[in-house]
Amino acid sequence: MGVLEQPAAPAPAPYLRIAAELRARIASGEIRAGEKVPSVRQIAQEWGIATATAGKVLSVLRAEGLVRAVPGVGTVVGTATGPPPGRPDGAPRTLTRDHIVRTAVALADVHGAAALSMRALAAELGVPPMALYRHVPGKGELVALMADAAFAECGLTGRAPAGWRGRLESAARHQWALYRRHPWLAGAGLPPAAAGLMEWAMAPALRRGLEPTAVARTAAAVTGYVRGMAVSLADGPDAAALDAAFAFGLARLLDGLAVYVEQHTGGT
Question: With a threshold of 0.85, does the pTM exceed it?
Answer without folding.
Answer: no
